[in-house]
Every structure is written in C-alpha cells, then in structure tokens.
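Quick review question:
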C-alpha cells in the first residue's frame, strides 16, 4: 500500500461520519417556531391597541359610532335593520370571544358616542336593545331633529326610553334644535324688556328642550335640587351638549352676524370678533341651562314660559 493511500485511510478513521438529523425532530422544531401567539398571552396594553384597531378599521380615526336604518323605505321601523360602521360590526363579534375580552373591549365601545340619524332610529334602537346593554351606554347623540308635526309623538316617548340609560353622561343635540326641519324655522319666544338676543335664543332653546326632553332631563336635575341655580346649571351642562351652531342658526343667524373673520381684517379686529362671538355663545348657553333649572323648579315659571310653545307636556 502506498504511503498516500495510507494517509487517506488514517484520516478517515480519525473523523467519524456525522449522524443524519432525524426528520421528525426537524419538523417538530419548525412547528415550534411558527406557533402563533395567542391574544390572551399578550400584555393588556397591546390587547387594548388591537381592540381600537378593530373598532377604527374604517378610517383609522377615533370618532362617533353612527347608526341609521340600513335602507330608507316605508317598512315599519321595528322591522328595519341597522347600518353601522364595518369596524363596529366586527368589534361586536370580538365581544363574544370570552368574558375577559368582553370586559376589556366593552369599556372602549361604550366610551364612544352613539350617533343616531334621527329620533325614529334612536327610538327603535332603545326598544330593541337589552336593558343590560343600554345601562352601559354613556354618550348618545342625534344628527337630525324631527319635523314639527312629528315632535310630540316621537321625541317625548324617545326621551322617556332614555331613562333606562342609567350611566348616560352626555346627550348631544343636533344643530337645528330651533328648526322643525331643514327649512322650517321655529319662532323665538318674545324678547323680554332689556333682554339681549343671546338670552332670547337661550330661553327659546330651553323651552324646546324641556317640552320634549323632560323625561330625561328631570331625573338628572333632581340630583341638584339642594344646590344653587348656577351650580345646578353647571352640572346640567355636563349632560346637555348643545353645539354652537344651534345658537348661531337661530333667528336667521343674527346672533353672530358680521363676526366671521374677513380677509381684510387685521389681527386686532379678528381677536375682537372672536371674543365677541364667544361671549354671545356663552351667554346663550348659560341662559339655556339656567332656564332649564328654573323650569324644573318653578311650576308657575314653567306655565308662563311654555305658553309660547304650546304649553308643557308634564
């Protein structure tokens, strides 16, 4: 045997061949690497972010949950189905995963404002929704008011149903509170001697709200019966959310007439217009809230003021 062949043989004997990996062990290792992470194994903070991502999947932004009938027809409202944002629809399914997810996700859902297209949609929702669900809703809003001939038969029963919303914190009213519809303007109450237009608008808003919304407003105001007028009005303001446009649109928009910034205005003029506008809107809002408290506390005041709007329904 040649010396070269002998060296190759000795080298082969010194280095034993590697054992082949078992196929079973390899597949098992691969499975371990690809195993998904369960939702409940994530930290609570991450789960909350996932819930929000599902709820806001429509536009990626936080906003109201808008609810309307799926299609307009002459179908009896009770048999109508609701159309809600896709993200909210998926979110409702998420609540059914388990009790822990339900508790965590429900807190996000019920912190939103449930914005209804009109009183008829809201009334149908309140009739259908289980009491145990209604009691968790904290914020409700109306996008549209109702035509004058439908107010008595629609609004007051709807606000009566809202008594079941035990945790209700805010009710957002539409911008045309002093209008019956798109073109029907409600006349303001007669101005009292020396009264500003802002106060007249505020009193008129209060009369409309009390006439139709007293079933919801009275239980709230009863909590402040032992407090002064200003303090009680301030607490009522936490519930009654009236947009600035509601005051501005009244009386043919005379309240803030000429206060819109113009291109030729200098900085001083713009600031003065802004300050004046805010003062008038605040005066109208404060008047509205204080008059609501007076309507609740004084039957004689209520009888006198409500004559301008057909009397009180109470």
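Suggested answer, residue by residue:
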């Amino acid at each position: 045997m040649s010396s070269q062949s002998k060296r190759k043989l000795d080298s082969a004997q010194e280095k034993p061949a590697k054992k082949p990996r078992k196929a079973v062990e390899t597949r098992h290792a691969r499975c371990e690497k690809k195993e998904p992470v369960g939702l409940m194994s994530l930290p609570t903070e991450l789960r909350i972010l996932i819930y929000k991502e599902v709820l806001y999947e429509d536009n990626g932004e936080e906003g109201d949950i808008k609810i309307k009938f799926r299609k307009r027809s002459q179908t009896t409202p009770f048999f109508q189905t609701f159309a809600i944002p896709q993200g909210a629809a998926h979110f409702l399914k998420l609540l059914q995963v388990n009790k822990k997810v339900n508790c965590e996700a429900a807190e996000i859902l019920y912190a939103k404002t449930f914005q209804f297209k009109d009183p008829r949609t809201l009334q149908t929702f309140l009739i259908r929704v289980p009491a145990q669900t209604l009691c968790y809703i904290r914020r409700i809003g109306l996008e549209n008011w109702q035509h004058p001939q439908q107010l008595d038969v629609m609004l007051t029963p709807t606000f009566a149903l809202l008594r079941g919303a035990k945790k209700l914190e805010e009710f957002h009213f539409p911008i045309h509170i002093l209008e019956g519809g798109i073109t029907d303007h409600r006349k303001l109450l007669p101005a009292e001697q020396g009264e500003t237009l802002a106060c007249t608008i505020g009193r008129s808003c209060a009369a409309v709200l009390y006439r139709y919304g007293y079933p919801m407003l009275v239980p709230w105001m009863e909590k402040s019966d032992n407090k002064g007028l200003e303090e009680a009005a301030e607490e009522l303001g936490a519930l009654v959310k009236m947009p600035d446009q509601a005051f501005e649109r009244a009386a043919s928009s005379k309240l803030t007439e000429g206060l819109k910034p113009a291109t030729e205005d200098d900085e001083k003029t713009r600031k003065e217009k802004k300050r004046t506008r805010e003062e008038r809107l605040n005066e109208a809002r404060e008047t509205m809230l204080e008059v609501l408290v007076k309507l609740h506390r004084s039957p004689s005041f209520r009888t006198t003021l409500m004559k301008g709007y057909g009397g009180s329904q109470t």
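Why it works: The beta strands are 65-69, 82-83, 113-116, 139-142, 170-172, 240-241. The chain has one domain: 40-306.
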